[in-house]
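[09:14] KT: can someone run the structure on this one? pasting the chain below
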Amino acid sequence: MAAAAAAAAVGGPQPPQAEMPAPGLALDKAATAAHLKAALSRPDNRAGAEELQALLERVLSAERPLAAAADGEEAAASGGGGGPGAAEEEALEWCKCLLAGGGGYDEFCAAVRAYDPAALCGLVWTANFVAYRCRTCGISPCMSLCAECFHQGDHTGHDFNMFRSQAGGACDCGDSNVMRESGFCKRHQIKSSSNIPCVPKDLLMMSEFVLPRFIFCLIQYLREGYNEPAADVPSEKDLNKVLQLLEPQISFLEDLTKMGGAMRSVLTQVLTNQQSYKDLTSGLGENAYARKSHEKYLIALKSSGLTYPEDKLVYGIQEPPAGTSTLAVQGFAGATGTLGQLDSSDEEDQDGSQGLGKRKRVKLSSNTKDQSIMDVLKHKSFLEELLFWTIKYEFPQKMVTFLLNMLPDQEYKVAFTKTFVQHYAFIMKTLKKSHESDTMSNRIVHISVQLFSNEELARQVTEECQLLDIMVTVLLYMMESCLIKSELQDEENSLHVVVNCGEALLKNNTYWPLVSDFINILSHQSVAKRFLEDHGLLVTWMNFVSFFQGMNLNKRELNEHVEFESQTYYAAFAAELEACAQPMWGLLSHCKVRETQEYTRNVVRYCLEALQDWFDAINFVDEPAPNQVTFHLPLHRYYAMFLSKAVKCQELDLDSVLPDQEMLMKLMIHPLQIQASLAEIHSNMWVRNGLQIKGQAMTYVQSHFCNSMIDPDIYLLQVCASRLDPDYFISSVFERFKVVDLLTMASQHQNTVLDAEHERSMLEGALTFLVILLSLRLHLGMSDDEILRAEMVAQLCMNDRTHSSLLDLIPENPNPKSGIIPGSYSFESVLSAVADFKAPVFEPGGSMQQGMYTPKAEVWDHEFDPVMVILRTVYRRDVQSAMDRYTAFLKQSGKFPGNPWPPYKKRTPLHPSYKGLMRLLHCKTLHIVLFTLLYKILMDHQNLSEHVLCMVLYLIELGLENSAEEESDEEASVGGPERCHDSWFPGSNLVSNMRHFINYVRVRVPETAPEVKRDSPASTSSDSLGSLQSSRRPKVLQRENSGTAQVFSLVAERRKKFQEIINRSSSEANQVVRPKTSNKWSAPGSAPQLTTAILEIKESILSLLIKLHHKLSGKQNSYYPPWLDDIEILIQPDIPKYSHGDGITAVERILLKAALQSRMNKRIIEEICRKVTPPVPPKKITAAEKKTLDKEERRQKARERQQKLLAEFASRQKSFMETAMDVDSPESDIPMEITTAEPQVSEAVYDCVICGQSGPSSEDRPTGLVVLLQASSVLGQCRDNIEPKKLPITEEEQIYPWDTCAAVHDVRLSLLQRYFKDSSCLLAVSIGWEGGVYVQTCGHTLHIDCHKSYMESLRNDQVLQGFSVDKGEFTCPLCRQFANSVLPCYPGSNVENNLWQRPSNKSIQDLIKEVEELQGRPGAFPSETNLSKEMESVMKDIKNTTQKKYRDYSKTPGSPDNDFLFMYSVARTNLELELIHRGGNLCSGGASTAGKRSCLNQLFHVLALHMRLYSIDSEYNPWRKLTQLLEEVNSQLGNEEQQPEVPILYHDVTSLLLIQILMMPQPLRKDHFTCIVKVLFTLLYTQGLVALSVKCNEEDRSAWKHTGALKKNTCDAEKSYEVLLSFVIRELSKGKLYHEEGTQECATISPIAWSPESTEKYLQDFCLPFLRITSLLQHHLFGEDLPSCQEEEEFSVLCSCLGLLPTFYQTEHPFISASCLDWPVPAFDIISQWCFEINSFTERHAEQGKALLIQESRWKLPHLLQLPENYNTIFQYYHRKTCSVCTKVPKDPAVCLVCGTFVCLKGLCCKQQSYCECVLHSQNCGAGTGIFLLINASVIIIIRGHRFCLWGSVYLDAHGEEDRDLRRGKPLYICKERYKVLEQQWISHTFDHINKRWGPHYNGL
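[09:31] RB: done, structure tokens below
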């Protein structure tokens, strides 16, 4: 029976079977549906309902495809997916019919849509969709809008940006929970529910019956298709197959959601209805299939490690009794579930740490609440099971989209969110196992961000579903799977576990979806408050954070370089930032007011407990383990940040949240260790650990991390310092930095823990750290705006910055809701206060600058803070850069000429809670250090630098600025030094200690030291090698040994302090002195032989400072107390002259401050200055010192020598460059001296830039010009209309290339070839408008043989730049300009030149004969010399430069006419291009634009040489037609069969000129040139007249014919245009040229009235292009300068320059162009001969005859397409546009800026013969040069031949910056200047020279 049922369901002709529930089902579906609908509409619809159920049962049975295959196991496997085939489509058809209730489905859809209360947009998109975000309108930071809603709303002036969605998203328009209503678009502004009518009941009635079955069917398919993946084989393939088969079903559901609100609410009812779910899926029915399906579902649940919390024995599935709590026992290795049967493989992965993981996990898993979170899932509705399968199948995109499309339905949204939370643990497990975790992460976030961004919803779920518990637990469990034992401190006994950064979970950031959800919900105040109030949660969270405490431990390599540099630090920093710091910032943002004090107390309390546990776990006592550092102390940082918040915002008393002294001592150790390690890393002490350790040090201070890492660390140290004993703290610092041994008065010492080469930088590090610690106020009292300002100033001082890089570099609170949002109001206002905007500029080299911000002068003057700069620099060079810029500012503003020191900046006042920090400056230990260092610097001990002195002075100054109240002078004067003769300083105040004289110091020195021989006087202070001696000696000792000083070490002092605190009884500690513990880690056996010596010092800090002043200034007695002259100084001490300067200024400033602080100091300074300081005695120079001195001297001398050499070299180079630049064509070197009697015989001399020799170019050793040959289609882009072409941005706008110069010339040539003889056609025009060869040179010359060897050496040099030597490319050896050929210079002396220039007085007739004879001589190729070979090879290069299609126009391939045409066209192309470079006319005159850089002369020689090889038969030579009257006219017409020659009036005159000149033997004589020009001018003028006659209408013609005829017999009739015009009209009227004018023609002809003036203007304009080219040619051939002129007189000036104007021409009356005519034969005869040819052609083809006569001679200059103002217009049109070739939307769309063609960049779809579309287009459109705008990146890419480069962008944002790849998505506007530069480079063909970064594209673009 099953088979029959299956057959019936397929539709088609069904057998009338007995069990059919209703009659007539075999009829069509529509009738059935209508019948059922009617049945269901009756009040008693039970029968109808049953009938429908039975039908659905049949149509929508998921068992059918499987039922058929149930017999064979194999068959079952093959059909395992339940493959929907035809049957499925049939089922869908049924559903559609039933839903529509018999009507049409489309009508039904429309009807439902009418009831859509579209209050929300809710459009769902997937990755890579372009969406918008407006921060001004957003309430949640995740708010996003689709493009349509964004453009429909009003966001002018808002802070918005466009972005490419990474994970997908949904449009929030209309949702007031996420965004402000003002930002809604027009469609979603109206709360439209009011005016939408109620949905009629019967419309959706069928849906309510049909959809539950449909969804159940879908779920059954999903159950059926899922097979648990085998442990080793990922089963994505199978899953994907099932999903593909289900595609139509899911799409059908998705379409339903798009019908709007009415349908969504039906779906919501269906999905959330628990009753129908129970009825359908319980699996209890008699239907065997349903039972089987249910079993599969249970197995899936079980294998996921989840239990179904009901008694399952009903279903016959055995389970362990619930009583034995399998949960607590088993723990969670890997992602294993309760039954652990699946992931047993994960257990083994954990190698050694497995047992430990177990132990830890059991502890956690015992918590029953967690257990239920992790393991129990119960599904009560379709929605829940659908989500379960969505997760199981790893979030298929279609399902995700369907589930999200439903979200606009409020009821659904709540239900779905709860379901999502319920499945959260399951999601985490699936994610961890997934092989595609990236894709899956994106899909998860796609969903969760929609749910959790809504505060109301988040709060509801938190309250009802324990959302926070679930999230924290799930995160904890996730991290548990990758814990390892911590090796920090005590490796063997450590109980601490940390995450292993090498695991995939961390390395691939798999945890980020969960963390990002957590951060998202913590941004809601109501949720965060619950978190902060819940003690249990806080404990769990601190537990979680402690997993990261001490991760990624670095151990310093001391012997070998590490073999493998691990890159785990990326994972570690990312994990701390994302998993610890960002949630912390989220919580902090809710602790802003006093009422939230309680929260802070909670966090601090549990944080301290966790820290205490951590110290215990790692067995930490008091000393950190050596050579270890971890940068990750999140617990410390939580503690620090909450402390800071408490004091800053909540007015909490700091001491109430601080632990005891012992805990503070422990707390400071690790952060201090990091600071010392930073110094070690920068001192290269960690080099053996590889580059990654530097990477860590840099990341730690980098802008995105610093405020979560280094800032809290320094703040914590500041807190500790303010509460601990200052002597203890200072000595700890020097001990951690390992420089204690260095701090001795002795000139030599031994350091047990540090190599000598590291001492200096470590000492600098220690002092710099102290300066930062004492001057930084980021958390100690600065307001947010002050912080922002300080950060900004620091960044701007390092370098000028763009707006976006500033936004990026300024550390903002990482949590988006925390107030200072990038781009917020305060950012802009602070920026405008501290910086000036520099608009984007171009540098001559072509590199483009962005818009930059640079600090204002007053910022340099008052706000430059070196301390902040040092703290924020990632690279040490940035500090130097800031100092250099500061120096430059001082020089420029005249404030200080020399090398200044970093200025001392006044600090913001300290917050009262941290006053204790300043005690550090007033403790004896620090004073001893400062005194010792000043002394050492004065005595020139080794390893001290200016930097050390600078920091010492900075600390002294800080101490003076922050001294306690003025101490009374009297008290201090009593007793003085006597009172404590053997200690260092009497008190702890710096002000009084400064003047305290120290007489003797006892030191421990190596026996070899020079100090050993001294006797010891009675009263000494002592200092020891171990460290400084501090005066805090126990009183007992003082009584006993009052006479001699006892040596005590700083280390011991510090230990003792620690002991005191630990023992909690200071009295005992004072009695019992702990013996000095030997330095634990000094190398055994290295203890040097020490002996005690006593030094005589007799200095105080003040006296040392004054002597330093003398030393720095290099003069004796240079210091003179300023107040002696000007008592005012003491009253108003802030004198600007002291604020900038070097060390001398600093010393003066300090002495002044010291004097101000106490009268005693003032008196003592005066005293010291009064004693004339004796000159410093010359030191006895030891041999070693002598050596170093000699070294210095030698170095100095070497330096001087080097300077001298360099200077000499520079001058040589300069003269060489000058001579090199003078090289040029021989003609231009010597001016025309026509008067000199005997010309000087001088040959052109060339310098070879390779061998440096000079000499002429000769036949056997020719010299050549370095040239670049490139094909160019720029000329072809000229258009004839002034209106610039715009880039199309709508479907209507298209660009057609019909009016381009290239197209017009092409049409003309093909017309001629249709009617005339081919060989003659190829002489009548020029080609090269497209793909013409342009030759340019840098002007440098080289011997051709030198060049060949140069190319060889390049070929052997493997490290090639971006050019290909095999293609002959190279760079000029002198100027490095790109080139690819060498153009030989024709040997010739300048004598000939001068001879040929003599004007001859021959008549024009004689000259014409001479020209003809000269052309007739065949040009034999000169004998085989090197020169001729080179000429040939360069000609080959020129031909190969362009593609074949641009050279071959003849109908017979390979005909010599082709070559002939190509060669003279090369000359034409170069002349035309030069004309364009001059702006299209010659008004500016002067030499060639490129100065001496033109190579046309040499090019002409090469071309002429080759053209002379082809002789034109004398009868075909156009020269004869121009200069002779031919008698046998009629005989030519006789032979009709062959095509005629091109009539002379159809010839292009400029081409004729080039042909005539290139056919002459070179060098050419000037009078021959003039003769040719005169003859051609007559032809040109006639052409102008003919064209004019064709353009005007019949009446004008007859009028002219008449007026001209009257004047015909006047004397100069041949030079009057009226006469000539009337003659032309008369002649042409004989033919049919004018006859064909029908009505349609009249319209086209311009209706101007032709006045004599307009006629004259027309004729001049017609002739001008020819005259310009001719003048340029004359300028190049004969070296004559071009005269400059006004535009209106260009014609007459050029005529006289070319010798067309008779010399006696009077200029009074208005200029008439016809007066330039000089007819070689009677004008009327030759004109009638020319017109006859035309008439005979127009007999047959009047239309074409006319078209060929009207030539467009006025081309406008070429331009790129005009771009719209705003980039968005381009982007919106093109980024969704489909490609015309492959009709897909390209991944990388691009558009050509020359012709507007839309292409796919790198698109394989449009590849042709291995060329991708852009490369192909660049060849077709620009002959190898393409300029493309990449739509998705806003940048322009240039393709030149086989290379390409990124040019940059012509669209900049409001701050003058590019936005490559549209990453920032800010609005972009066209930068006209940049576009002009681009166009200029295109026209002048200089892309190769100006852009530097070229690479090969291998045809792949």
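[09:33] KT: thanks! The radius of gyration is 47 Å.
[09:34] RB: yep, looked fine to me
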